[in-house]
């Protein structure tokens, strides 16, 4: 979603704001803007388009301001125009706000403000904040005015506000949308620290690793020298400082043309990092530190429900399969956006597991709140340490794969699958998974980083295939059993970054409809490793070939027979049936990447999408 940033300190604010916005570009990228207080005046510059457009608009301006706000937008209310870009101002032009979130009682508030004589100029919901604050502001009570304004608003916000009448402070507030306060090191002894407040740790990382996560209903008053966080109750609570464990290089492309390719190429390490310190091979066990406190409840769990969105949802589908096939434990997966409303009945013994890379997806957050209300034990598989979902779940497992920047999730998905296998072993050893079977899975997990490297070495072959098919209009992905969700994920990856029409199907379903589409213009990507449904897959491929469909097979190394059917074959090293998804998704990620590249698409920032969807 949108990214927001504010800086106050002793340094010129503009370079810090622009650096932060650049690092949050993946959150939204249809318009951007900044507001600084320069010689007692509020100066705002905002532009539709990518950040470069704002950069160009700022090229001939110089600011010495040491306080400012920045925003990068993913439009919800109002088209991505210069006018609708943030920051927004009040009627006096003295207040500037940046907002990430959504105002639900917009119509009512707008009508009220208009009746009171406020002139609202934009089509956004966020502008309302500026006018509400103006309404309660007397020129020296900014934090109280913000507090009063917030009592009127229904919805979600990460909000930062400045006023030229009080040029020595930023007021920020959070409800439902993340906000992190970065505490900068002192420039010199006895000088103020300087602070960066942002919706994303990536924007803070270049300046400091010391942070405080704001909680829902917190209001922060930040001056160049100090900060104060006030809870809803009015109590001051500056929360514990935390240390970001990410490396700045993770936020850089390091020579790769796109973050997506960089993140795919990191996957051997990602798999190793997701397992690090968690395997006990000699005992056929795994240790997941974050779950130790809930082991007794996990032992008596009678049903697992995974809740997630997007790519993480497909990981959940594989989780469902693992739980049922390996442990006989009833499991299901729900779209978080549906679970929050569909009035599920949760029997005692239900464990709800949220899967989320960002830990901030609004629907997933709402789903876990709903699950808690219904009495379930709620756990998380989350990448971003300290994120909302990580904090609101009772216990959980971190992916530990570092920053994922490309909007299309790749390495986080691979890690989610690894964690789900670890969870299967953990729950399995509490149940009937034999030590020998667990040892076999662990031993093969340890081989995965090398096997992934072998797939990545086929990068050029995959690029050549991608070039051949990049100008087609439609692609179907098929798979069976545990690889059916990989067909769905392959199709999602392709459509989100290349804008090609792609669909994922269970291979056996082709004949119930989609086969009618197939002719020589349709590529069919088939995930067909040598597993228990291999022969069934081959029969489906015969049906496709008979209709002239162009098969791109993802097959097991050494499978010569499949060459008879497929136009192209990408080989996976042999592995256990339950681990094939971890390998099979990688060529599909690369295929999507190279097709999008061939089509000239903005790979890391696909149109209309955002990395972290913090609105409903
Ligand atoms: C967005 C992203 C997807 C991601 C989904 C869930 O749609 O573009 O890549 O899979 O959100 O995000 P999460 O952070 O909860 O995994």
Features:
single chain; 616 residues; alpha/beta; Glutamine Phosphoribosylpyrophosphate, subunit 1, domain 1; Rossmann fold; 8-stranded antiparallel beta sheet; 6-stranded antiparallel beta sheet; 19 helices; 26 strands; 35% helix; binds 6-O-phosphono-alpha-D-glucopyranose
Task: Describe the protein in words.
The protein is an alpha/beta fold and 616 residues long. The chain is 35% helix and 23% strand. The chain has three domains: 3-244, Glutamine Phosphoribosylpyrophosphate, subunit 1, domain 1 (4-Layer Sandwich); 249-449, Glucose-6-phosphate isomerase like protein, domain 1 (Rossmann fold), CATH 3.40.50; 458-616, Glucose-6-phosphate isomerase like protein, domain 1 (Rossmann fold). Helix 15 packs parallel to helix 19 (580-598). It has an eight-stranded antiparallel β-sheet. The mean pLDDT is 93. The chain contains 19 helices and 26 strands. It is globular and about 75 Å long.
What proportion strand?
15-25%
Q: Would you tell me the overall average pLDDT?
A: 93
CATH topology of the largest domain: Glutamine Phosphoribosylpyrophosphate, subunit 1, domain 1
Query: Describe the biggest sheet?
Result: 8 strands, antiparallel
- Please tally the β strands and state the result: 26
CATH C-level class of the largest domain is Alpha Beta
Poorly predicted ranges: none
CATH architecture of the largest domain: 4-Layer Sandwich
Count of helix runs: 19
Structural class: alpha/beta
Shape: globular
Give the helix proportion (percent range). Answer: 25-40%
């Amino acid at each position: 979603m949108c990214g927001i940033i504010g800086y106050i300190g002793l340094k010129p604010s503009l370079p810090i704001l622009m650096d932060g916005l650049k690092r949050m570009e993946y959150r939204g990228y249809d318009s951007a803007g900044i507001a600084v207080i320069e010689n007692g005046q509020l100066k705002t510059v905002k532009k539709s388009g990518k950040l470069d457009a704002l950069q160009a608009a700022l090229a001939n301006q110089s600011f010495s301001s040491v306080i400012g706000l920045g925003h990068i937008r993913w439009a919800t209310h109002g088209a991505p125009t210069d006018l609708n870009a943030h920051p927004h101002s009040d009627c006096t032009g003295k207040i500037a706000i940046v907002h990430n979130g959504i105002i639900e009682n917009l119509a009512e508030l707008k009508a009220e403000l208009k009746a009171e004589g406020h002139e609202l100029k934009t089509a956004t919901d966020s502008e309302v904040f500026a006018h509400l604050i103006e309404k309660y502001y007397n020129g020296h009570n900014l934090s109280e005015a913000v507090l009063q304004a917030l009592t009127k608003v229904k919805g979600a916000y990460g909000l930062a506000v400045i006023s030229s009448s009080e040029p020595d402070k930023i007021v920020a507030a959070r409800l439902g949308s993340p906000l992190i306060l970065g505490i900068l090191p002192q420039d010199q002894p006895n000088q103020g620290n300087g602070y960066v407040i942002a919706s994303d740790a990536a924007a803070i990382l270049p300046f400091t690793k010391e942070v405080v996560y704001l909680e829902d209903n917190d209001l922060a008053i930040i001056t160049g020298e100090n900060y104060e966080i006030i809870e809803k109750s009015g109590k001051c609570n500056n929360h514990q400082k935390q240390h970001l464990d990410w490396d700045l290089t993770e936020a850089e492309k390091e020579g790769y043309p796109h973050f997506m390719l960089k993140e795919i190429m990191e996957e051997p390490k990602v798999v190793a990092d997701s397992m690090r310190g968690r395997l006990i091979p000699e005992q056929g066990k795994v240790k997941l530190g974050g779950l130790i406190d809930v082991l007794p409840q996990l032992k008596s769990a009678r049903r697992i429900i995974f809740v997630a969105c997007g790519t993480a949802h497909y990981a959940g589908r594989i989780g469902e399969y693992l739980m049922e096939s390996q442990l006989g434990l009833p499991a299901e997966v729900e779209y978080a956006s549906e679970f929050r409303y569909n009035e599920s009945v949760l029997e005692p013994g239900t464990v709800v597991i949220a899967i989320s890379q960002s830990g901030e997806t609004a629907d997933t957050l709402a789903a876990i709140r709903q699950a808690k209300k219904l009495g379930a034990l709620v756990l998380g598989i989350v990448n971003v340490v300290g994120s909302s979902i990580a904090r609101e779940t009772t216990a959980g497992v971190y992916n530990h794969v570092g920053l994922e920047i490309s909007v299309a999730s790749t390495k986080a998905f691979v890690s989610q699958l690894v964690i789900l296998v670890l969870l299967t072993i953990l729950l399995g050893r509490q149940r009937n998974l034999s030590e020998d079977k667990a040892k076999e899975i662990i031993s093969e997990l340890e081989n995965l980083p090398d096997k992934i490297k072998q797939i990545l070495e086929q990068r050029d072959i995959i690029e050549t295939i991608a070039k051949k098919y990049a100008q087609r209009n439609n692609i179907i992905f098929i798979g069976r059993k545990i690889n059916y969700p990989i067909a769905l994920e392959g199709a999602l990856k392709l459509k989100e970054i290349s804008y090609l029409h792609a669909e994922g199907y269970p291979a056996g379903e082709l004949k119930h409809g989609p086969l009618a589409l197939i002719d020589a213009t349709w590529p069919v990507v088939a995930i067909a490793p040598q597993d228990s449904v291999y022969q069934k897959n081959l029969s489906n491929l015969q049906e496709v070939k008979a209709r002239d469909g162009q098969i791109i097979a993802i097959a097991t190394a050494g499978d010569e027979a499949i060459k008879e059917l497929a136009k192209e074959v990408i080989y996976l090293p042999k592995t256990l049936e339950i681990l094939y998804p971890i390998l099979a998704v990688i060529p599909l990620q690369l295929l999507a990447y190279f097709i999008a590249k061939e089509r000239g698409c903005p790979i890391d920032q696909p149109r209309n999408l955002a990395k972290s969807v913090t609105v409903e």
